[in-house]
Write a structure and sequence with these properties.
Largest sheet: 9 strands, mixed
Structural class: alpha/beta
Radius of gyration: 24 Å
Distance between the termini: 64 Å
Number of strands: 11
Low-confidence stretches: 1-31
Mean pLDDT: 89
Shape: globular
CATH class of the largest domain: Alpha Beta
Helix content: 25-40%
């Protein structure tokens, strides 16, 4: 999931391969700690393991945490030794929890390669930094900034009482430390090299692993590129505005008054509304202001299938005062428990890596979105323990191996402009090692769209680097934007025939 902001606020070593045996040893043989396990949403028995890691790398004898991982064994006996490592999004998403959703996209790779899902520290089963689920709270409580800050502050206080949260423990959940954990898992499993597949925040994680351990990566796929130099709270506004403007332009023909309706809706705020809570069905009475509306509109923009219903929802709110569609859509996004973020880990990452760069950010605020997200993160990070990040973290060295970048042209969080910047840095020494594919009408996450999963398979499965790139991505430009949703109109009563009708 995606580098998205949840409702709480509205998103790789340089050692040569040792021996031929290590290069060809089956993963299950090399990984004695693996035990049979079962995961929700996957019918077959899988393998699970964990590695003990120091909470603070500078104190190897200090407090320990267990980093848990899942292995989906390759189906073929004659499998390849280079496993595929899936890096989850967020920051804050559990890789193990999303495994059942990701497996269909990687099924061809799984024929001859093991798939590995590691719960990054702070997520899932690995010293989780979870905040209470707010999905069933009243809508105004979910989206109200003041209420959000109170919940986040209470969550921080609770997390600091955990064994791994005490004495500033929340400082040790940065991307750099987490990638050192990933390397420990690779060593434990005896995998000679990873094929990295990162989505959203997982792209930042993949780039950091690639920087730290370049010899341990065979191929890299990064989908929805969120580079380390991205000042997240500032880019939220810029990129969200661009995606909203693109949506309004795309539906100008079918909804000729949509732009006017949107401006009319903004001008009508604040206003009192009554809306049923989408998950509980309980009617709620609250006041919609500009920030609340923008938070409701932003989330559907991540998925074009949901965004296709925004024109009708905006019209209904502007013309009829009916806000049910808008708040229903924002609740539909990421409603699955598997997509829920560990918000404590989210803030530990963003407060350490993004907030220090916010004062120097050059991304202009969106005309509508303005600076609400930046203000929210600034408030949260005032009290959140902040980890140390080295200047080298923000640098992207030339790619040591082939990298495939994927971007959605309608993505409100990680649009192509970020992928272009990263592609230039990765290709500084050898442009042939890098390819950036843009799917013009895709949203946040391109791998599930149309032909893209086959393109990713061909890239990773290619026997040598020369055959890996470039890939024919012409199919991507032909993927259309979903047509605008139109509400079903009630059937008109049939008028009885008159005597003269048969004449």
């Amino acid at each position: 999931m995606p580098f998205p902001v949840r409702r709480a606020v509205a998103l790789a070593a340089a050692v040569a391969l040792s021996t031929l045996t290590a290069l060809t040893a089956p993963l299950a043989h090399a990984a004695s700690p693996l035990k049979p396990c079962r995961i929700d949403g996957i019918a077959t028995e899988l393998k699970c393991g964990s590695v003990e890691r120091a909470l603070d790398p500078a104190r190897p004898d200090g407090p320990k945490i267990a980093v848990h991982y899942l292995v989906v064994p390759a189906l073929a006996r004659n499998k390849q030794p280079d496993a595929v490592l899936m890096l989850a999004g967020g920051p804050g998403q559990s890789a193990i929890k999303v495994a059942s959703r990701v497996l269909p996209r990687l099924s061809r790779l799984n024929n001859r390669r093991d798939l590995v899902f590691i719960d990054q520290r702070g997520t899932g089963r690995s010293a989780p930094l979870d905040c209470p689920d707010d999905s069933k709270l009243p809508i105004t409580e979910q989206l109200d900034p003041a209420a959000q800050l109170r919940r986040i502050e209470a969550c921080r206080a609770g997390l600091e009482k955990l064994p791994y949260g005490q004495d500033g423990g929340l400082r040790f959940f940065t991307t750099t430390i987490a990638m050192q954990d990933m390397e420990a898992v690779r060593e434990q499993l005896g995998v000679p090299q990873w094929n990295l597949v990162g989505a959203s925040y997982g792209t930042r994680a993949a780039l950091e692993y690639l920087r730290l351990f370049p010899a341990k990566v065979r191929r890299t796929v990064i989908d929805g590129v969120a580079p380390p130099d991205m000042a997240l709270p500032a880019s939220f506004s810029t990129d969200g505005q661009a995606a909203l403007d693109k949506l309004l332009d795309a539906h100008a023909t079918t909804h000729p008054t949509l732009k006017a309706d949107w401006q009319k809706l903004l001008a009508s705020l604040p206003r009192a509304v009554t809306v049923q809570q989408p998950l509980t069905g309980v009617p709620e009475h609250f006041t919609v202001d500009r920030d609340l509306l923008l938070r409701a509109v932003r989330m559907p923009l991540y998925q074009p299938a949901l965004a296709a219903a925004l024109p009708a929802a905006i019209e209904a709110a502007a013309r009829e005062g009916n806000f049910a569609g808008l708040f229903g859509l924002t609740s539909a996004f990421g409603s699955s428990p598997a997509l829920r973020l560990a918000m404590g880990m989210h803030f530990s990452v963003v407060c350490a890596e993004d907030l220090p760069r916010l004062p120097g950010a050059t991304d202009p605020p969106g005309a509508d979105f303005r600076t609400a997200n930046a203000e929210m993160y600034t408030q949260v990070c005032k009290t959140w323990p902040r980890g140390a990040v080295t200047p080298d973290f923000y640098k992207i060295p030339p790619a040591p191996s082939p990298v495939l970048l994927l971007s959605g042209g309608a993505d409100p969080a990680t649009p192509p402009r970020h992928g272009e910047r990263v592609a230039q840095a990765l290709g500084a020494a050898d442009k042939a090692r890098v390819q950036h594919v843009v799917v013009p009408e895709a949203g946040h996450g391109v791998m599930p769209v149309g032909c893209m999963r086959d393109l990713v398979f061909r890239f990773i499965d290619a026997r040598d680097d020369a055959a890996a790139l470039p890939q024919d991505a012409s199919c991507a430009t032909r993927i259309p934007r979903p047509v605008a949703f139109r509400p079903i109109q009630p059937a008109q009563p049939v008028q009885p025939a008159t005597q003269g009708a048969a004449k």
